């Protein structure tokens, strides 16, 4: 599977995102009760934030297939919860619920997301902080090279802080970046 990326356009993409983030499968996204205007407002704030951005991953036909967020953990999400290093980049991703699952899709998505992040030579390490209860994403993260560091208490959840270097990603996936 090959994916491309484009910046999220909140007014244009918020209806699609609303369907994705309010679906029961997206419970860990913590937007289950969001109204369409709430989703648009949240992503307009991200678009205006110099330390956070959102991208849509597009399939081979240019159709939105997943959401990716990139943030600077020295300024967002993890401030005061760990000691950031130069080159650290925070990441979230969401694959939407589907009635026709494709085997290997989510792993292909996270691989594409990490390859995209590591295309930037300034990215030395990707940082994630999924909910400790999200066992499926922990397994997926480890499959692409993430190493759990420790549990941390965020205001909205208990999270598993994990890191992946370029070398760890390449060793786990065979993708040279």
Alpha-carbon distance between the termini? 17 Å
Secondary-structure element sequence?
EHHEEEHEHEEH
Poorly predicted sequence stretches spanning 5 or more consecutive residues: none
- Provide mean pLDDT, rounded: 93
- Which percent band covers the strand fraction? 25-35%
Number of strands: 7
**Structural class by helix and strand composition:** alpha+beta
- Principal-axis shape equals globular
Number of helices: 5
Relative helix content: 25-40%
Structure description:
With 177 residues, the protein is α+β, with helices and mostly antiparallel strands. It is 32% helix and 25% strand. The protein has a seven-stranded mixed β-sheet with strand order 1-2-3-4-5-7-6, with helices on both faces. The radius of gyration is 15 Å and the shape is globular. The two termini are 17 Å apart. The mean pLDDT is 93.
Keywords:
single chain; 177 residues; alpha+beta; seven-stranded mixed β-sheet; 32% helix
């Amino acid at each position: 599977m090959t994916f491309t990326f484009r910046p999220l356009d909140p007014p244009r993409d918020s209806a699609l995102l609303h369907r994705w983030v309010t679906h029961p499968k997206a419970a860990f996204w913590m937007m289950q009760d969001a109204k369409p205007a709430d989703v648009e407002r949240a992503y307009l704030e991200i678009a205006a934030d110099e330390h956070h951005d959102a991208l849509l991953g597009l399939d081979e036909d240019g159709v939105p297939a997943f959401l990716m967020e990139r943030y600077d953990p020295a300024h967002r999400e993890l401030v005061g919860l760990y000691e950031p290093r130069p080159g650290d980049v925070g990441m979230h991703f969401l694959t939407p619920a589907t009635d026709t699952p494709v085997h290997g899709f989510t792993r292909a998505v996270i691989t594409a997301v990490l390859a995209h992040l590591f295309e930037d030579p300034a990215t030395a390490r990707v940082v994630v902080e999924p909910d400790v209860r999200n066992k499926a994403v922990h397994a997926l993260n480890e499959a692409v090279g993430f190493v759990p560091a420790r549990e941390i208490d965020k205001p909205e959840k208990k999270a598993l802080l994990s890191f992946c270097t370029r070398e760890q990603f390449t060793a786990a996936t065979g993708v040279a970046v």
